[in-house]
Amino acid sequence: MSGFVEKPEPIQVPGLVHLHTGKVRELYRNEAGDLVMVASDRISAYDWVLPTEIPDKGRVLTQLSLWWFEQLADLAPNHVLSTELPPGAPADWQGRALVCKSLRMIPVECVARGYLTGSGLAEYNDTRTVCGLALPEGLVDGSELPAPIFTPATKAEVGEHDENVSYEEVARQVGAETAAALRQATLAVYSRARDIARERGIVLADTKFEFGFDGDGLVLADEVLTPDSSRFWPAGQWQPGRAQPSYDKQFVRDWLTSAESGWDRRSEQPPPPLPQQVVDATRAKYVEAYELLTGQSWS
């Protein structure tokens, strides 16, 4: 059992139809048929959306995604139409709401890995492969791969695990031409982002993208290259063979699995609220990632 500890009631705005509550985002449709995507300050861990929010998180994710969309514009068109607030929207949506194209979404999490960790490491330790791709012997947690790899996953509902699948399975589900286009776009965007991040002292270990189709072809959608969808490591502290320090919600995960939290993730009980020091440390990591990557001060 997992999902929302306390599922929020979506805000109702005249002229907008609420479509979906995700782990982090609320999705609406406006009268023109475009999507309005609003990033909340919610945070998830271990397939639970927690009862405690992280201040500014939704704005950091939105503004960092916008910055990345600009860096990637020549490689992949994106779904953003406007950052203008819809009429009647609450002031709190400022900086966290995007008006986006309505796309025909492809039901595949497009994961690129340049380094071995997480579920990829677990699979490698069992089979020396990741999503069916054979890898060299001797790799450890945090090892840089010989070249980035495309390791897709199925897109899960809130409270469920994404499941790694082979490239062949993606081709079976969406067609060989679309699968090839997804792999090419994913690796091109990851490689560009990895190089940009490296110049700023950050290792982009892995990340996931979502794509959809409009009338002109493949379009990059959702959020991109944020601490929610990527593993960012401080380059100066990168050391294969151990878990790496990271710019993400590791403080949240560590506290939830500590004795202090009193929570057993194997139980069906929802996790408890986060203490203030964990909230503050997590917010600081999101802000630090934004400032290092963009070179802009977060105010």
If you compute it from the alpha carbons, what radius of gyration comes out, rounded to the nearest whole angstrom?
19 Å
Fourth-level CATH superfamily of the domain at 104-237:
ATP-grasp fold, B domain
Largest sheet report: 8 strands, antiparallel
> Which class of the domain at 104-237 in CATH terms?
Alpha Beta
Q: Uncertain spans, ≥5 residues at pLDDT below 50?
A: none
Jot down its keywords:
five-stranded antiparallel beta sheet, eight-stranded antiparallel beta sheet, D-amino Acid Aminotransferase, Chain A, domain 1, 299 residues, alpha+beta
Your description of this structure?
This protein is of the alpha+beta class and 299 residues long. The chain has a domain at 104-237: ATP-grasp fold, B domain (D-amino Acid Aminotransferase, Chain A, domain 1, 2-Layer Sandwich), CATH 3.30.470. Helices cover 28% and strands 25% of the residues. It has six helices and 18 strands. It has helices at 57-71, 118-127, 167-174, 176-199, 250-256, 276-294, and strands at residues 3-4, 17-21, 25-29, 35-39, 44-45, 48-49, 80-82, 97-100, 104-105, 108-115, 129-130, 133-134, 144-150, 153-154, 163-164, 202-214, 217-221, 230-234. Helix 1 runs parallel beside helix 6 and helix 5 (250-256) packs antiparallel against helix 6 (276-294). The model has no long low-confidence stretch (mean pLDDT 93).
